[in-house]
Write a sequence for this structure.
């Protein structure tokens, strides 16, 4: 433990500050828009604070544990997550027309959030293990199968946004793991070709969101309402924002689902362009950190892990912000670390904890092999996975 | 070793390079976000701030209380009755619930559900503009609707007011009524700042003084939430209540006039009577009989009542005192007399021989009403005995003597100077101008040349001459008061809602009669003689209460021939009293009333008596119906 703390470098410290900063802004924003009437665990802000405490605890814990342990639990975790995704289709509670949550007393748990991290770990292990035949077609097809299971299960909930996250995680990890560009290209082509077909199998609300994304003014009081109101909120923020009290778009509830989908619009209205830049910069500190971790990664497993985590968070951040400002369709992807929602917050913090763990343990041999002299051994140890 | 240095020297392996590409893609995405944010928050910020403001603030008009109309003594002629209206905010009615809401509301109010649904549906194009669905529901219904808000989303009850008129037919014509804006006038009223669901004055004073009575909207600037629900009030400008108007008319005098007209005219007759203060032009009473009860319209007139009023050939919906045009007959002769004297066509002593007719060389014969002739006639006798032949001579000239007449052009000029051919400007809607014919007029309207016979006809108020009763009255008032033509005054004073008098419309001169004092006196003595003289045509107007001066008129008009093969005719009597120091001018028109001396004069006498005694004398003559041999 002490060893681990000693190894903390400025980069690890900076990313932790960025994470805490984002969480704080998220909490402040949520406290500004949550209903003041409710108290106790019923109150969204109290609930979110509890998850922040849990999440931060897990972040630190995961960061200090050697990430290589994850390799052992990779398959078990994956199977567990897939079972959870299957079970939620039968035993989950339904909200907003989708069955995505387990209910444990007052706590709701969204298994798809866990499945993202499980998928990253299992793919990292999978690509590492098949390193020699990494660019074979069968390896490639196998990774598609691993990803296809959660994609299908989540689509059944239905949750288009999260299934897209799975696809992006897989795509980036397969790419990073050295899949042949021919394979990747074929997949991209298939995606483009199947786009018109998928239009017909889409549910009506999904089509509506695409149409709204293309032109929200078609139905300004209906499906385009949220998008237009979010843009008004963001736009009216100006340079410095309108402050917490006088953000009329947020305070008067012209913005809906402002605690999750449209939380960035609330922040942008309150804190303006400068505030938006700060938020984006904090996320980019995390991305940069993840890239550094990738580059410095001692072995493939950790490299793939970090690449997957980077892909997941970057995609979620870009889409979640993009849909607030008309750059992406509304997909229900929440803004990591800021949107209300315990599962997302906790799982994001765990993922970030893994990232830090990779950073902290890159020069460490597995199981207390801490001597610097054994560095190459450590790297070799990594290869075993 | 090799691997170790490779890692440390910043030469990443293939996986890392590929991951850096992913990072580059993320950076590109981030750059796109920032560019877009720059566009939204900096470049177009003003536009969005405006939209956010428009989102949250809404202006609401606050309706003013409509002003009240009183008579001269403060007797209330109309009041505002509090009622309840049902409104809907179309955007607040969920589409799937619309039929249910409409049905429920229909059941509660006794309206047609599908019709209500259509009305709400139409409003959903502008979901934030409330519309009035139902007027005037009972208090009980209003309370039920208020209680059942949850069943009736978007439906609200608002306090409102409707007009209640007193005095029925006596004041109905003059005060008029309010009602919904007709579709073809919506633009105009919108420009005047009137809400389209408002009732506006449709006739009478209500119509003419619409803006004054309505007052001005107040304004509320409110902050609203996303559902349009009110959050708080930013600013409030109270409405400016409508002004209260006091008429120059006294309701009790008007009632007496109405009674005198009604008892004579009954179910078949029609006519006009107006009394005016001779020194100010104040209208003291104005009856166009038959009239209508404006309260019927306020309550929402039944089809039956409306078709009765609309199909009555006497046209009770029109105020014939100002919007009826009639040939003025002999009452018009004073214009000719004035012109002839002033233009020195002849001297006052000049004698014209009246054999009972005048035959033009062309062969046209123009008769006197007295076929035996008046004999030798000067202006005094010509007026008092209403000699047609005298006025033929002085107007169109006599081809057999050296008398050159006034001529059509000068006759028309005098006619206009006496107030004919243009509306008097009384504060009532739809007043007509009338017609002062001359050669130009005939050319423009009939494309025919003017002939001497036209001048003859015009001289006795026949032919093309058309005037409103009010115009004729105004001329007699001017003769009676020494020559001043006033704008008839109907609004005595205007009060604000604090009951402070804020305006007293001035007594307004339209002009002075172009008459010397001597000539004016000659006309007046003729008018006095016409009533008081042995051979006067207006003897039947002679009153025991006050000395009356006046002039009869019998104006034939083209219509169904009456007994004896004569054209039907209107009966006039116009004059003033007391003759020596006149206080009032009056006019009576009995439409289709036969000889003026027989009908109009008798009614005029009753009205004069009533003015000076305050009581309506018992009827001393046969009613209209018996005169026509009917009933």
């Amino acid at each position: 433990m002490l060893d681990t703390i000693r190894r903390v470098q400025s980069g690890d410290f900076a990313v932790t500050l960025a994470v805490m900063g984002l969480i704080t802004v998220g909490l402040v924003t949520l406290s500004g828009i949550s209903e003041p009437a409710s108290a106790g665990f019923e109150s969204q802000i109290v609930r979110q604070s509890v998850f922040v405490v849990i999440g931060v605890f897990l972040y630190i814990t995961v960061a200090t544990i050697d990430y290589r342990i994850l390799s052992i639990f990779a398959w078990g975790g994956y199977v567990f997550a897939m079972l959870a995704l299957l079970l939620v289709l039968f035993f989950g509670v339904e909200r907003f027309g989708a069955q995505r949550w387990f209910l444990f007393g007052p706590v709701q748990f969204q298994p798809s959030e866990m499945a993202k991290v499980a998928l990253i770990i299992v793919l990292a292990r999978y690509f590492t293990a098949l390193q020699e035949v990494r660019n074979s077609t069968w390896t490639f097809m196998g990774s598609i199968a691993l990803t296809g299971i959660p994609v299908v299960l989540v689509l059944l909930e239905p949750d288009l946004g999260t299934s897209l996250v799975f696809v992006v995680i897989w795509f980036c990890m397969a790419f990073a793991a050295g899949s042949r560009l021919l394979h990747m290209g074929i997949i991209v082509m298939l995606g483009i070709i199947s786009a018109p077909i998928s239009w017909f199998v889409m549910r009506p609300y999904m089509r509506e969101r695409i149409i709204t994304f293309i032109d929200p003014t078609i139905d300004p009081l209906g499906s385009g309402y949220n998008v237009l109101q979010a843009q008004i909120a963001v736009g009216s923020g100006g340079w410095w924002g309108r402050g917490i009290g006088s953000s009329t778009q947020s305070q008067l509830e012209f913005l809906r689902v402002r605690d999750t989908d449209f939380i960035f619009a609330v922040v942008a209205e309150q804190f303006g362009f400068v505030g938006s830049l700060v938020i984006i910069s904090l996320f980019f500190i995390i991305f940069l950190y993840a890239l550094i971790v990738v580059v410095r990664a001692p072995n493939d497993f950790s490299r793939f892990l970090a690449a997957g985590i980077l892909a997941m968070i970057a995609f979620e951040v870009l889409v979640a912000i993009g849909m607030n400002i008309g750059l992406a369709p509304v997909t229900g992807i929440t803004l990591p670390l800021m949107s209300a929602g315990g599962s997302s917050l906790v799982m994001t913090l765990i993922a970030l904890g893994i990232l830090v763990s990779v950073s902290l343990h890159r020069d460490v041999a597995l199981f207390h092999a801490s001597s610097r002299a054994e560095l190459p051994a450590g790297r070799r140890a990594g290869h075993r996975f | 070793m090799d691997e170790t240095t490779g890692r440390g020297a910043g030469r990443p392996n293939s996986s890392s390079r590929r991951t850096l590409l992913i990072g580059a893609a993320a950076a590109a995405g981030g750059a796109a976000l920032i560019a877009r944010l720059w566009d939204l928050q900096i470049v177009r910020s003003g536009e969005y701030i405006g939209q956010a403001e428009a989102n949250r603030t809404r202006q609401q008009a606050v309706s003013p209380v409509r002003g009240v109309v009183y008579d001269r003594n403060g007797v209330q002629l109309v009041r505002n009755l509090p009622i309840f209206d049902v409104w809907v905010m179309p955007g607040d009615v969920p589409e799937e619930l619309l039929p249910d809401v409409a049905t429920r509301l229909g059941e509660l109010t006794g309206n047609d559900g599908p019709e209500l649904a259509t009305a709400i549906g139409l409003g959903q194009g502008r979901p934030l503009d409330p519309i009035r669905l139902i007027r005037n529901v009972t208090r009980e219904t209003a309370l039920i609707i208020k209680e059942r808000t949850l069943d009736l989303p978007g439906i609200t009850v608002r306090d409102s007011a409707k007009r209640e008129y007193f005095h029925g037919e006596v004041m109905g014509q003059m005060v008029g009524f309010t009602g919904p804006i007709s579709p073809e006038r919506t633009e105009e009223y919108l420009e005047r700042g009137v809400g389209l669901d408002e009732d506006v004055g449709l006739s009478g004073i209500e119509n003419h003084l619409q803006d004054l009575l309505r007052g001005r909207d107040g304004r509320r600037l409110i902050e609203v939430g996303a559902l349009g629900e009110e959050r708080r009030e930013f600013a409030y400008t109270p409405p400016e209540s409508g002004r209260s108007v006091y008429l120059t008319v006294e309701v009790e005098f008007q009632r007496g006039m109405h009674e005198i007209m009604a008892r004579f005219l009954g179910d078949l007759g029609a006519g006009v009577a107006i009394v005016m203060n001779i020194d100010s032009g104040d209208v003291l009473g104005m009856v166009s009989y038959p009239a209508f009860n404006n309260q019927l319209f306020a309550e929402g007139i039944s089809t039956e009542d409306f078709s009765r009023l609309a199909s009555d050939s006497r046209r009770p919906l029109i105020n014939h005192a100002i919007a009826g045009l009639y040939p003025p007959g002999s009452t018009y002769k004073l214009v000719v007399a004035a012109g002839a004297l002033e233009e020195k066509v002849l001297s006052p002593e000049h004698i014209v021989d009246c054999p009972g007719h005048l035959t033009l060389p062309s062969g046209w014969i123009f008769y006197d009403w007295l076929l035996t002739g008046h004999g030798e006639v000067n202006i005094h006798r010509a007026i008092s005995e209403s000699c047609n032949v005298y006025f033929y001579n002085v107007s169109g000239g006599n081809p057999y003597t050296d008398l050159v007449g006034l001529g059509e052009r000068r006759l028309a000029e005098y006619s206009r100077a006496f107030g004919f051919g243009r509306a008097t400007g009384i504060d009532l809607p739809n007043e007509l101008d009338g017609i002062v014919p001359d050669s130009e007029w005939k050319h423009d309207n009939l494309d025919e040349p003017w002939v001497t016979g036209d001048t003859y006809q015009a001289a006795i108020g026949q032919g093309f001459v058309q005037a409103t009763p009010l115009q004729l009255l105004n001329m007699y008032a001017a003769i009676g008061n020494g020559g001043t033509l006033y704008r008839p005054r109907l609004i005595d004073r205007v009060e604000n809602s604090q009951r402070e008098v804020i305006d007293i419309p001035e007594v307004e001169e339209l002009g002075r009669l172009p008459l010397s004092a001597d000539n004016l006196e000659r006309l007046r003595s003729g008018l006095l003689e016409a009533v008081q003289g042995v051979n006067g045509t207006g003897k039947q107007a002679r009153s025991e209460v006050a000395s009356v001066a006046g002039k009869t008129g019998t104006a034939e008009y083209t219509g169904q021939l009456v007994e004896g093969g004569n054209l039907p005719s209107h009966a006039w009597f116009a004059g003033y009293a007391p003759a020596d120091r006149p206080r009032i001018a009056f006019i009576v028109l009995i439409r289709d009333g036969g000889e003026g001396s027989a009908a109009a004069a008798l009614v005029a006498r009753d009205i004069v008596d009533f003015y000076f005694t305050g009581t309506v004398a018992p009827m001393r003559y046969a009613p209209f119906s018996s005169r026509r041999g009917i009933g």
About this structure: The first helix of chain A runs from residue 2 to 6.
